[in-house]
Design a protein that fits this description.
16 helices; about 20% strand; GK_N_sf; Glycerate kinase; about 400 residues; glycerate kinase, domain 1; kinase; 6-stranded parallel beta sheet; alpha/beta; 12 strands; Rossmann fold
Length: about 400
């Protein structure tokens, strides 16, 4: 099911039906994100005319392209390579004409890659703010609201640079609701938030800032409207979840699809454990054997010193809350192949894992307390390792319930 979800979101399978009309002038491709190199390759394979461009991807996500330059930079915390590459992208768009076409290929992860700072902002501080927000428990919408005000390409920056050329955006969505302003922090759509909104977010999480940043945000109004342009979401968590559900139904399982789920990862894990209890008590919409599906992005407030991303934390919380449950299997993993800043996509467990872990000296509750989900699932050989998948439609979570025995 997990691999079916990834496969549905691969650019090779979803970009062909969305090619724009040929322009009278040049065609320039730009873009950023974990899937954007794969999108660029799929695009240029199907584009017979003149073509050039520049796309930025995280390290390890590069694929060979013949006409579009692929640059690599750091994610989720930006680095100088991203500053240079995104500055070069803006320079590439400086002399666009009305007869030209700009195609922007966006996917999750683009916000950290399009990081050329606004004038007067020190890049080292932009990095510090990014790290602080990642550890704070801020959700992706809050982080992006700040990024849009501090980085030139974001919040409509690419659209402003591309004018007066015709602009077409093709996006693989990793955000709740497929909000265009949130995918890669909306570089081709208007940013209707103000600098005061960004200041309020930084203040709520106790993130310190310099006088230069504070001044910029206090004077930043919502940006001028950007002319409507073609914007198409070509893949999303919804379509990927449908592909996974089809496999489950073919295998004879009922499906309870929770849709997009957000919130603190460990709290979501406890909530889903309670839902499992309702299923086995015949108090839910479905009965065993069944599979509970969910997607979307949770968040993690970092308090411990351990390793692990939001999928690992969710799954470890679910495991501890279901201690003693029979017939319950679960998997949680990110479709981009990277859970947080680790090298794993996520993890999985099967019935009896918690008790076997304790017998071998690995108490799951202790690991959860210190937020060390990676070490726990590594010790139990239950990490999901895919490497970069070169797509990104957010997290995939599945709980398979075979038994009707009530969890203790």
């Amino acid at each position: 099911m997990f691999y079916a979800a990834i496969d549905r979101a691969m650019a090779e399978h979803c970009i062909a039906g969305h090619l724009p009309e040929r322009p009278s002038g040049r065609t320039i491709v730009v873009g950023a994100g974990k899937a954007s190199a794969e999108m660029a390759r799929a695009f240029e394979r199907r584009w017979s005319g003149e073509l050039t461009g520049l796309v930025i991807v995280p390290y390890g996500h590069k694929v060979p392209c013949e006409r579009i330059a692929i640059r690599q930079a750091a994610h989720p915390v930006s680095d100088p390579a991203g500053v240079v590459a995104s500055g070069d992208m803006l320079a590439l768009l400086e002399d666009m004409a009305e007869g030209d076409l700009v195609v922007c290929l966006l996917s999750g992860g683009g916000s950290a890659l399009l990081c050329a700072p606004e004038d007067g902002i020190d890049f080292a501080e932009l990095q510090t703010i990014g790290r602080a927000l990642l550890k704070s428990g801020a959700d992706i919408a809050q982080m992006n609201a700040v990024r849009k005000k501090l980085a030139k390409p974001l919040g409509g920056g690419i659209a402003r640079a591309a004018a007066p050329a015709r602009l077409v955006t093709l996006a693989i969505s990793d955000v709740v609701g497929d909000d265009r302003a949130s995918i890669a922090s909306g570089p081709t759509v208007p940013d209707h938030a103000s600098g005061d909104d960004a200041l309020a977010i930084l203040a709520s999480y106790g993130v310190e800032m310099s006088t230069a940043v504070e001044t910029l945000l206090r004077t930043a109004a919502s940006d001028d409207p950007i002319p409507d342009a073609c914007y198409t979401v070509i893949a999303s968590s919804r379509s990927s979840c449908d592909a996974a559900a089809a496999i489950a139904r073919d295998a004879g399982y009922a499906i309870l699809d929770l849709g997009e789920v957000t919130g603190e990862a460990r709290e979501v894990g406890r909530d889903h454990a309670e839902l499992v209890r309702k299923v086995v008590l015949a108090e839910a919409e479905v009965s065993a054997p069944c599979i509970i599906l969910s997607r979307g992005e949770t968040s993690v407030t970092v308090r411990g010193e351990g390793r692990g991303g939001r999928n690992g934390e969710y799954l470890l919380s679910l495991l501890t809350a279901l201690d003693g449950a029979a017939g319950v299997h679960a998997l949680a993993a990110d479709t981009d192949g990277i859970d947080g800043a680790g090298d794993n996509a996520g993890a999985w467990f099967e019935p009896g894992l918690a008790s076997r872990a304790r017998e071998s000296g690995h108490d799951p509750r202790e690991y959860l307390t210190r937020q060390d989900s990676y070490a726990f699932f590594e010790a139990m050989d239950r990490l999901v390792m895919t490497g970069p998948t070169r797509t990104n439609v957010n997290d995939f979570r599945a709980i398979l319930i075979q038994s009707t025995e009530t969890p203790q």
